[in-house]
Amino acid sequence: MTDFTATRAMFDLPRGMIYLDGNSLGPLPRNVAARVAQTVTDEWGQMVITGWNRAGWMDLPARVGDRVGRLIGAAPGTVTMGDTLSIKVYQALASALEMVPDRRVILSDTGNFPSDLYMAEGLCRTLGPEYRLETVAPEAVGDAIDTRVAVLMLTEVDYRTGRKHDMARLIARAHEAGALVVWDLAHSAGAIPVNVTGAQADFAVGCSYKYLNSGPGGPAFIYVAPHLVDRARPALSGWLGHEAPFAFDLDYRPGRGVERMRVGTPPILQLAALDAALDVWEGVDMDDLRARSIALQDAFIAQVEAGCPELTLASPREAAHRGSQVSFRHPHGYAIIQALIAEGVIGDFRAPDILRFGFTPLYLSPKDVAQAADTLCRIMQNGAWDRPEYHTRARVT
Ligand SMILES: *Cc1c(COP(=O)(O)O)cnc(C)c1O
Predict the structure, then answer these.
(1) In terms of domains, do 222 and 80 share one?
(2) Residue 33's CB: how many other CB atoms inside 10 A?
(3) Strands 180-184 and 79-81
(4) pTM over 0.85
(5) Is residue 260 part of a domain?
(6) 295-321 residue pLDDT tens
(7) How far is the CA of 249 from the centre of ligand 1 (A)?
(8) Is residue 209 in a domain?
(9) How many domains does the chain have?
(10) How do strand 132-136 and strand 348-350 relate by DSSP bridges?
(11) Which residues line ligand 1 (CB under 6 A)?
């Protein structure tokens, strides 16, 4: 059994704060500061440029990629790290599209994160007028997969509602229709059990600063199925994805396996932070994590629905259809979240009316969750959320 008291002790959470926003930016694991300081002082400071070899900086994207791979069911050597998730979405999509040359349609859903859709639109514009992105309602995806679709591009867990797609079923459906699938695991990696190998995913991408706690701006990951990777032609053909970067050839040749999905110089300080942050996962069983996440979510839903009936559940009621977050709707959602934050309970707001709460068993206890629900209901009952200062929108919601 996973010891969640032990994992909680591995985090440096601000005193008095209940953090229900690990789905947006994970908190600081205790060992990260020392590791980053060591990388700065001993490696960058003392080794300077020799750190690329002596400290193994150049291998860090692959080494850390393997550690992330373990959390998503990817074999060693099939995941690499770098860039931001938006870039990785673009790369995966471009390579997948090129592998289905007789088709021109990218299919996605209206619950997808806008950046994924924007990247797809931008790629279509570059490729030519016959390429297009089609979106349907999340529930309609299965039926919309036909033989016109080149690539199905989906985010497994909806960032707004927490609704979870049936990944294995949709992959099987897409493959039957001759399409490839790109999965965005931004709200899956570290949140729920994922098995890209077992589900036969073609490409998968995700970020590390949400449930994997790498810190703001931490690098993204990309997985390419082993049977496809040698055919994957990188659209962003940077020098570090070249077969021999230090040959400085004038012609591009893709590197070995998923290494070809590297673009430029890796962010070593952020990779060091992520590498340390991943230590937290060493004794964690993902099935235990899932069971505990569902128990926390169900308790929160029950308490909030009983205590503040004016909030409407926006997430699927059935736990099996949710990721690791719970959302409610209210027309004054923004102000309610600001009032909650003022009380030390951190959730966030997504336009137009979603109050979003992430559930992260690594550092959240049943007591935290009960207290958070209690605070939310108190704010709703005494009208504290309706103060003018809570209605002013900040740049980041
Ligand atoms: C968080 C998130 C992103 C963010 O992309 P960045 O390039 O890292 O800013 C993209 N897609 C999804 C589905 C996300 O949840």
Answers:
(1) yes
(2) 13
(3) unpaired
(4) yes
(5) yes
(6) 999 999 999 999 999 999 999 999 999
(7) 34
(8) yes
(9) 2
(10) unpaired
(11) 84-86, 113, 115-116, 155, 159, 184, 186-187, 207, 220
